[in-house]
Amino acid sequence: MSEQLTLAAETRELVGKGASRLLRREGRVPAVIYGNKQDPVSIHLEEKALMRALMTGHFMNSTVSVELAGGTTTLTLPKDVAFHPVTDRPMHVDFLRIGEHTTVHVSVPVVFTDEEESHGLTKGNGVLNIVKHEIELVCDASAIPGEITISLKGREIGDSIHISDVSLPKGVTPAITDRDFTIATIVPPTVPTVEDEELDAAVAESNAEAAAEAEGEGDAAEGDAAEGDDKSE
């Protein structure tokens, strides 16, 4: 089960771009808590504490207990984190307010095991083609899986792994119910064709010509520079 995280926060009286920029200069990240038929609450978090939570790798599929100054605690589920396009610093967080046993919709990472026991991968030199790195699930907020483990033992080239092949924890169901969707396949190794080899050779030849041309231009520039030095003397 995914662990519950805790973040300290403070309510913010001022909202808007100017107020948010000021908070970020002070090492704080604006956020909002909404949902569960209650009014939204604007808050701000310490950026360092938020980064530590993000670095766990399972922030988006963990319940987060937001502790406000004054002793108020709200159980939430992160729904969105906005990042700066250049620095990748967190700019804003949306938290969905939930109850202890609220049914939630989450994306849970898939982990593949027993690759060494897959004949298709070890003996056939097959390639694991992952179609879905995460699976959207519906479950109780108190029982969100940290990950879904899928064994590759005995898998051969040409095998497909569908959601119906996966044993989900009790009370956990796929969010997609209208089809038996594919999670991964084991495909044959990629064999270079004559066309691929010819293209590689052409690219190598072109790179060699470009390098030689650049070297020639460099020699010419050095010659010009030397001639200029001679004249100046």
Summarize the structure.
Residues 7-95 form the Large ribosomal subunit protein bL25 L25 domain. Helices cover 26% and strands 36% of the residues.
Question: What is the secondary structure topology, with strand pairs?
Answer:
Blueprint: E1 5-11, H1 17-25, E2 28-35, E3 38-46, H2 47-54, E4 64-68, E5 73-83, E6 90-97, E7 103-113, H3 119-122, E8 127-130, E9 134-140, E10 148-151, E11 160-162, E12 173-174, E13 182-187, H4 194-232
Parallel strand pairs: 1-4, 2-6, 7-10
Antiparallel strand pairs: 1-3, 2-3, 4-5, 5-6, 7-9, 8-13, 9-12, 11-13
Describe the 3D structure.
Keywords: Ribonucleoprotein, Ribosomal protein, RNA-binding, rRNA-binding. This is one of the proteins that binds to the 5S RNA in the ribosome where it forms part of the central protuberance. Belongs to the bacterial ribosomal protein bL25 family. CTC subfamily. Part of the 50S ribosomal subunit; part of the 5S rRNA/L5/L18/L25 subcomplex. Contacts the 5S rRNA. Binds to the 5S rRNA independently of L5 and L18. This is Large ribosomal subunit protein bL25. By secondary structure, this protein is an alpha+beta fold. It contains four helices and 13 strands. The strands form three sheets. A six-stranded mixed β-barrel has the order 1-3-2-6-5-4. Strand 2 and strand 3 form a beta hairpin. The chain starts with a strand and ends with a helix.
